[in-house]
Specification:
4 strands, single chain, 2 domains
């Protein structure tokens, strides 16, 4: 299945870049195609989120593994899958904050806010103050 980035115009949908244009040309006229549309994530927003996690990890003392720290933040922020065992026990499994796990910008924004709240609590800062610090840190990176 090909992934095509499209742009909405007054006259309809058009390919948004050259690779999408090439895939678009492969589609046969008159055929019906199924697609799933999502607003792709903003890379700068993604970098700010990674800066938030990195800054918080560097300024906490409980975790020595960045991977485990990120899982703990995801769990606390509610970014989880629910696993029900064969015995009926419910386990919350933290998801990875990967680009592929949250491809939609609107969903990502919601999860970013939840993680910001968790990180602000860990660092004992107000969320707006932390957001300001993260923006400085992300720009420098």
């Amino acid at each position: 299945m090909a992934e095509i980035f499209q742009k909405r115009t007054l006259s309809g949908w058009i390919p948004a870049d050259e690779p999408s244009q090439a895939e678009w040309r492969k589609q046969k006229l008159g055929e019906v195609y199924r697609g799933k549309f999502a607003k792709p994530r903003n890379y700068k927003h993604h970098c700010q989120f990674m800066a938030l996690l990195e800054l918080t990890f560097q300024n906490q003392e409980q975790y020595t593994s960045e991977k485990m720290f990120r899982r703990a933040v995801a769990l606390e922020a509610g970014f989880v899958d629910t696993l029900i065992t064969l015995d009926g026990e419910v386990h919350l499994m933290p998801k990875a904050y990967s680009y592929d796990e949250l491809p939609d910008e609107d969903d990502f924004t919601k999860e970013f806010g939840a993680a910001m709240t968790v990180c602000a609590r860990i660092l004992r800062m107000a969320a707006p103050e932390l957001e300001h610090e993260v923006s400085k840190y992300a720009v420098a990176a």
